[in-house]
């Protein structure tokens, strides 16, 4: 897949407010008053780039954060409010040169046509470093922000009714990604010809209608934005179960998963690879990254103390889908290498306190991994696909045209 | 005492996807690479312009059932490119055209509020409407909106977005690390809107941005459009850049403001204007003619004639006489995704008139399209253009202009270098930015201030 050694792993950081712990904003190192400024995000992404990370993801949502899974709350002791993740990514793109920018995009209430051109444009302004992380929302209150549809209330997460709702939302997400991807390909790379002799700016035979018809939307195309520099920017998704594993296997370049040990990692990777085979994508590269929430300190007791302090401030232990790691950078390096041996190709680290744990990742974990020959010592590519060892894909419509011509 | 001189507002329209833009010029660069946008924005900022302006179209134009290929095709996503431009400029306002038909208020409001935060208060929204099923084929709702409802949706869309912007007041975030109070008010962002087009409620998730609300532009020219602007807009992107039509439009719209309890200085009139500069007026005239010929190739001339004839004219020679067949009068139009074709309300009469014009002047099809098409608004030496622009503004033909160069991205450079210094010498254009937000540049009050004034007046 790439010239990077097989022992080398990929590293991303998941950015969300002042960090993933809900009490993180109360740490003196945090800057909660700067959350809504460009400078704050520029500082974080620049720090991540200093650590040679593959990319950052940026969390988002179409409603306020909440301590409840499906309902809003009225808490005043946690961060509420956020900026649009695509626009944050775009705002920091001209200030960085190598790091990938992967904002969260909610498929449930957005237009795939708008999302496709937004990420294509992010790819232009970053010169080939764009991606997206697709997310669904089953929150009834967020549906009410749009008023276009009602989402049935899920009472028990594992009930058959809940399964049906979630499956439907993931099916829609798959359609959304399919449309976004087709639109990226709806212009062939050499469609712009500027032929002064005939007066034609484009060769319209190299622009394609995508003619997508699905249950939730139909989209004609082509895009208004030419094919982006990477051809296909990166598509990624967080997955905890069969339905989202299937989305990852069918549509994504990266899946984020949450195993808690190497055996679980092996099992999850096997399930995703099986879905990948079933989808006829066995030959295509698909990264499976482990998500971990991290408290990093030189002294393991300090990391534990920090976690306890924040849990006490929050009034409860932090409920996490992902493994919560507390310890030293060297211990984390051990764990990442062990999980890597279980088939995970990289990791998306969620800093508990971004002001503390992000520099710990870039200035301590990264050098530790480098010493072990497990992480890059310099950026080896100019695009996110390049960093991930993914080739620039052929255009699906160009292939069709060639096949038709030779038939 | 004579009337004090008005200060001129200037903006830069990134060259669009129509035949004003001459892509065939050897100097013409990319319309999609970010470097072109950076060059253009930095030139505008170097010249102390008020803002940069981006148009939008959500479906590639077609003619005769095929994608129109003679003009520049392809452009970036408006919000995304403006957010990136905020990183390479410090003062320049960032105006995006965003459709109220194929978007939803919650999402657009959070995008504008985010852009306003990320640019330190420089965002503006040109609210446009459309209804066509053709564009709707790219969106969830399809072509759902009857034409007559487009302004009622646009009005309610803007009102709803304003409710969302106003759902945070600006003092909610305490972020007191000691006491653990992040929000002063648990209900921050709460909103309820029930109307004909939108029935939504919940919590807006972007806190109050530096400008409170983005500056709002309106571009429609109908009576309904003008009334919408008088009621709700901060500025109008108008089409009347000539002196007398400009003055008449200016009077008309400014006179509508009183009804809404607004003063004339609370709505700026900013027509789009093209220009050609030369060392002398004569040289500029020559150059302007060359540009018009470059804007209308033989192929383009035939396509533009089809706007009126509404039939395939590809068999005609652009250097030959006008077609002897008559236009097809039909609801179905050969050109799709182009507002311009609606200007020809009586195609048979237009065709008759054009045949007579062409015969009298011995014009070919191409000559006719060039001669009846848009002439550049300002043609001349830098001194002539600076004087004309100032005269027009002082004579209330406008409050300034949104300049549309014909070359990407360098078409603004000569204006910045040669015309702007003359306007500055005359004391009618800023030499430094005085404030940090677009409202500051445009002399518009913060919405909270306007609210206070209205309360004080009542």
From TrEMBL, chain B:
One of its GO terms (molecular function) is monooxygenase activity. Residues 23-395 form the Luciferase-like domain. Gene3D superfamilies: Luciferase-like domain (3.20.20.30). It comes from the Bacteria. Keywords: Flavoprotein, FMN, Monooxygenase, Oxidoreductase. The keyword Oxidoreductase applies. InterPro entries: Diverse_substr_monoxygenases (IPR051260), Luciferase-like_dom (IPR011251), Luciferase-like_sf (IPR036661), NTA_MOA (IPR016215). FMN binds at residues 97, 151, 222. The keyword Flavoprotein applies. Pfam families: Bac_luciferase. SUPFAM superfamilies: Bacterial luciferase-like (SSF51679). NCBIfam families: FMN_nitrolo. Belongs to the NtaA/SnaA/DszA monooxygenase family. This is F420-dependent methylene-tetrahydromethanopterin reductase.
